[in-house]
Amino acid sequence: MANLPRRIIKETQRLMSEPVEGIEATPNEANARYFHVIVHGPKESAYEGGIFRLELFLPEEYPMSAPKVRFMTKIYHPNIDRLGRICLDILKDKWSPALQIRTVLLSVQALLSAPNPDDPLEHDIAELWKRNEREAIKNAREWTQLYAKAG
Fold first, then answer.
1. Is 40:71 a contact under the CB 8 Å cutoff?
2. Distance (Å, rounded) from C-alpha 45 to C-alpha 108?
3. Cβ burial 63-98 (10 Å sphere, 16+ → b, else e)
4. Residues with active-site annotation
5. Do 81 and 94 contact (CB within 8 A), yes or no?
6. Tens digits of residue pLDDT in 11-30
7. Domains and CATH numbers, the chain
């Protein structure tokens, strides 16, 4: 971690000493800009009980540019595509250097609690979410059971 900017070191130390409930973020030993992230599906959401693996990478330009975040665990969600890319404004045009890794992870967790079918990456899933939310939630729960279970 010696050649990392001070901000990244401080943010990493804070993540380790004051973890966010339901989120584990561990820097990679070989590259401290790369984090292994686990997000537990929020209670009372379609993803409850799921353990979702993500990767988070801090580009050289961080904090002037947003971290790169993607789901490694398959998920049925209108804002997350088959490659795990996430449609989230703060990862794109609403990024600000005032935001931190912690903020990004909390926003991803919030997206699991409240999918936004009006700004989709997966149009088929978004259409079903709008047309028949109960069916979409059932599918999300099934995928959570299939792909995001511990063990």
1. no
2. 13
3. beebbbbbbebebbbbbbbeebebbbebbeeebeee
4. 87
5. no
6. 999 999 999 999 999 999 99
7. 6-147 (3.10.110.10)
